[in-house]
């Protein structure tokens, strides 16, 4: 297994995808830090009731998550579809015919590289976030267990999203297809579906419908990485955000489903 | 010792599986399914794609120490057969084994079987050397082995260049290096002569012959009989997924129409000297073709009688013609 991990790691390091994506991610994280920094600085008197001080801290330290997890998913998809696009899966499986073993190594790699992306994003947002918090006269909140948990789970979130992307890639094989599908599905579930749920909830007077969002991959990620306090941006509606561990279980569930389907299909299909 | 390009040798670390591998032809064995190391057995193999029966009840064996040509026009089912043999595709019916085992069940298979399926299956942005390093890492082979096979196929100067800068011939050599990585005693090569110039074809011929003389099994596919006829001992010819001919390539050459062509200014004298037994055709004013006499005999008569002979050749009437007849004119696109 160590040999396979080394081989998979070499595959990543011998092409440019990983750092091209990382470059894109860092650009976006910087942008997110500007926005989030602005939000916190404009709320220096802590007058916004939906944002506690620790929520400000968690929001800053996980800056860029909204697109960051999409980057992680796309990286995962690239890792799996590259082998189809360049037909290198043939030599991979000739060297290691045990496809389950190969897929396990690849999934571990996807998880690890997702986490590496998160650590990279955190390495940018941690110092900037601390600076912004002190400028707003807030504490750094790095001794707050909720904030530390949010930072740690943010790393897990990137990893799981990379696995989800990997699973999608393994299902669809076509690189362009998988990328388009992931981007469309991402915005469909995170924006359009959320909007529809709000409209539906208002129309039927069932505010609980909005909670469905928390069980979608994106909502579950938000739940898992918010700093304990409820991050309720929907004003007067009475919504209950589930506990963070519910979000974690839901997200891990999506990761497991994507990984299982992708692996199952890869193990049974003809290569070539 | 430095490797000479074009001369495959055992260079792997001690303990490679070829140690103790039988170098002589294997003893007579009447059971074709007996698990002989290095013997490839394909038995009743079929593959049905949606509408196409790509391989249809195909059976053949490949003996260790021989080079076997696996021939058929494009679309005949060669690659599909090899993919089933290598565990990349599941067979609709039948089995294919190497040394009595399924490829997928071999422990660390590339040390036993080296295969290359398409010369283009490389990540174009990777260097040739990195392509090999990735596979060596997965198989637990030392990185030094990558440089050895790179040297063996003679692409050392290009090893650290991206594959997209490679010519077809260089890609074919890299594919061969990939197959040789584990120093296997069975080689399975899909169209290794595709896109090669005559010099490249000659080089690969020597390479494969050297491998076979070391007792290794070589199965090499091609859609051009002429490209491999001088390389292979045995042939398995398929068309539309079915076997149409199996046997020694020598028999096939024998079956091909061969004749002796003589160029001389003294055609009439030669015709008289050869007499009535000779079946001959005068193909030009100074050219005579004899169908039923070996060139040695024609030569003896001509030179013995002091004729001035400009040229005396045995013409191997197209082996390719025999191939086309067997494969029904090459109608292979399905
Ligand atoms: N993955 C596939 N799906 C459907 N049809 C295929 C597939 N691979 C090959 N074929 C078809 O099977 C036949 C045999 O193809 P192939 O084995 O590649 O022939 P060859 O290698 O002899 O040129 C062809 O008709 C080809 O179109
Ligand atoms: Mg082919």
Structure report:
The complex is a heterodimer of chains A (272) and B (334). Chain A has helices at residues 2-13, 17-42, 53-61, 65-85, 89-95, 99-135, 145-172, 175-204, 217-225, 244-268. With 272 residues, chain A is mainly α. Chain A has one domain (2-268). Chain B has 334 residues and is α/β, with parallel strands linked by helices. A 6-stranded mixed beta sheet of chain B has the order 5-6-7-3-8-9, sandwiched between helices. A 4-stranded antiparallel beta sheet of chain B has the order 11-12-10-13. In chain B, strands 2-1-4 form a 3-stranded antiparallel beta sheet, covered by helices on one side. Chain B starts with 39 loop residues before the first strand and ends in an 8-residue tail after the last helix. The chains are: A mainly alpha (272), B alpha/beta (334). The A-B interface holds A 3-4, 6-7, 10-11, 14-16, 82, 86-88, 90-98, 270-272 and B 79-80, 83, 86-90, 103-106, 109-110, 115, 117-118, 120-127, 130-131, 133-135, 137-140, 178. The site of magnesium ion (MG) has 4 residues of chain B, from helix 1.
């Amino acid at each position: 297994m160590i040999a396979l991990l080394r081989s998979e790691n070499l595959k990543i390091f011998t092409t440019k995808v990983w750092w091209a994506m990382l470059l894109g991610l860092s650009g976006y994280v910087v942008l997110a830090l500007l926005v989030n920094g602005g939000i916190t600085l404009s709320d220096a008197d802590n007058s916004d009731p939906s944002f506690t001080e620790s929520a400000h801290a968690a929001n800053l330290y996980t800056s860029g998550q909204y697109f960051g997890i999409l980057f992680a998913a796309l990286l995962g998809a690239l890792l799996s579809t590259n082998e189809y696009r360049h037909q290198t899966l043939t030599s991979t499986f000739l060297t290691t015919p045990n496809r389950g073993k190969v897929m396990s190594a690849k999934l571990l790699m996807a998880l690890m590289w997702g986490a590496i992306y998160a650590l990279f994003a955190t390495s940018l947002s941690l110092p900037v976030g601390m600076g912004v918090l002190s400028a707003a006269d807030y504490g750094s909140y790095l001794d707050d267990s909720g904030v530390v948990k949010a930072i740690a789970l943010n790393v897990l979130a990137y990893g799981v999203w990379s696995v989800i992307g990997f699973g999608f890639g393994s299902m669809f094989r076509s690189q362009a297809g998988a990328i388009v599908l992931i981007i469309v599905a991402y915005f469909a579930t995170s924006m359009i579906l959320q909007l529809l749920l709000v409209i539906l909830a208002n129309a039927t007077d069932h505010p609980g419908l909005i909670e469905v969002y928390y069980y979608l991959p994106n909502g579950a990620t938000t739940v898992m990485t918010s700093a304990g306090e409820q991050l309720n941006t929907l004003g007067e509606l009475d919504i209950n955000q589930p506990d963070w561990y519910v979000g974690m279980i839901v997200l891990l569930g999506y990761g497991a489903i994507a990984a299982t389907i992708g692996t199952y299909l890869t193990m049974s299909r003809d290569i070539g | 010792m430095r490797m000479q390009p074009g001369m495959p040798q055992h260079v792997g670390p001690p303990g490679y599986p070829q140690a103790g591998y039988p170098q002589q032809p294997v003893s007579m064995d009447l059971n074709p399914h007996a698990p002989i190391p290095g013997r490839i057995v394909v038995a009743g193999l079929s593959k049905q794609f949606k509408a196409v029966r790509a391989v249809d009840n195909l059976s053949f064996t490949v003996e260790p120490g021989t080079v076997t040509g696996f021939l058929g026009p494009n679309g005949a089912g060669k690659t599909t057969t090899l993919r089933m043999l290598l565990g990349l595709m599941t067979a609709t019916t039948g089995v294919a084994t190497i040394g009595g085992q399924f490829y997928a069940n071999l422990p660390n298979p590339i040390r036993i079987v080296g295969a290359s399926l398409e010369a283009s299956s490389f990540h174009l942005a990777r260097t040739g050397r990195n392509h090999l390093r990735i596979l060596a890492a997965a198989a637990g082979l030392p990185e030094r082995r990558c440089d050895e096979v790179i040297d063996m196929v003679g692409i050392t100067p290009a090893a650290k260049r991206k594959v997209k800068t490679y010519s077809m011939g260089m890609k074919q050599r890299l594919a061969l290096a990939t197959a040789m990585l584990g120093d296997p005693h069975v080689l399975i090569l899909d169209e290794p002569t595709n896109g090669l110039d005559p010099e490249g074809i000659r080089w690969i011929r020597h390479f494969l012959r050297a491998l076979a003389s070391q007792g290794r099994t070589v199965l090499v596919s091609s859609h051009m009989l002429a490209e491999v006829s001088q390389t292979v001992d045995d042939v398995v010819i398929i068309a539309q997924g079915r076997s149409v001919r199996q046997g020694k390539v020598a028999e096939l050459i024998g079956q091909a129409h061969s004749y002796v062509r003589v160029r001389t200014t003294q055609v009439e004298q030669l015709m008289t000297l050869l007499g009535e037994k000779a079946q001959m055709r005068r193909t030009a004013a100074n050219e005579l073709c004899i169908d039923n006499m070996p060139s040695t005999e024609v030569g003896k008569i001509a030179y013995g009688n002091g004729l001035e002979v400009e040229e005396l050749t045995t013409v191997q009437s197209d082996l390719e013609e025999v191939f086309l007849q067997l494969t029904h004119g090459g109608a292979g696109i399905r």
